């Protein structure tokens, strides 16, 4: 089990009020939490974030049995404190406004205008705290004809054309549009949002020319979905020709795809002519390197219909492990196509400590759902002086409500009254 960290982290002293649910917003705030910010997540009493019920799979209790807590929630809520507050009630709204007075950052992913009825929208909270950085995550942004629509990762993958370039071509077995295997638009939106928030913090607090003022950040899944089309979008904008699905092949590189082996498949990612020449020598096929059809990457892309079948006939003659052994010291990018189980069993993944297990609650606290520890994926951010912190596992629903309310100055009688009335 990983020992919880006591180091402060790069964002120590920064307070985040997390009003977001599901994935994009929570992914953003988990990044901030990993970097040391104090993230307080506000959840609905008795229900919590939607993803607490998005199972199977579910967390296991100490006896190995399923609980009613889905593992989905644990992917993006590490290092946070959970409080339950009914924001539909005036008293709940007052509590959240009090929290916003002390916060540096608010992150929310309600529909456009959805928090205005509670007085928790950007304008209302900035009037109380002009230093507040308020990040709104929506499907389509704060303006435009789709602004009031709900947006979801899968919908945006379809709308932006990402699904049109993912999957096998129509003339291949299993051809047709395909979503990416994780909610990649949500995840990228969380990453972009955290970058924007850090930029806004710098603008506010920079000693040389900081404004001292917060600002509103408008993050849209649609905008991010278009942005991460990257080279595929730039190719279309340069030529006017929309790219299509190519399976695991690359539109601009060859050979850069999966290949069959004697016992399965491997991945070759040859990105330049030198790598191709070294592959040909190792594979005992020097004629490919001297063939004028394959002399450059552009020519290999143009003549991939001749090259790839010839290569597949050769790659089938060795096992995946044999190919990796043969090529890894030749500076030819090559690797296995792992399952997730195999990936976590990989020596490099283990050496980097990419699976971390944290205790669920402090000693002496009630085990509300019998889950005593949770394993997740470590932060990939590796800062030499202020590395990410691992303070606590994703919290049980409302685990820190009393703790946070006491920090706000509420006494035990007041907290008990709020709980009795269903406000918390």
UniProtKB/TrEMBL annotation:
<dbReference type="InterPro" id="IPR050483">
    <property type="entry name" value="CoA-transferase_III_domain"/>
</dbReference>
<dbReference type="InterPro" id="IPR044855">
    <property type="entry name" value="CoA-Trfase_III_dom3_sf"/>
</dbReference>
<protein>
    <submittedName>
        <fullName>Formyl-CoA transferase</fullName>
        <ecNumber>2.8.3.16</ecNumber>
    </submittedName>
</protein>
<keyword id="KW-0808">Transferase</keyword>
<dbReference type="InterPro" id="IPR003673">
    <property type="entry name" value="CoA-Trfase_fam_III"/>
</dbReference>
<dbReference type="GO" id="GO:0033608">
    <property type="term" value="F:formyl-CoA transferase activity"/>
</dbReference>
<dbReference type="InterPro" id="IPR023606">
    <property type="entry name" value="CoA-Trfase_III_dom_1_sf"/>
</dbReference>
<dbReference type="Pfam" id="PF02515">
    <property type="entry name" value="CoA_transf_3"/>
</dbReference>
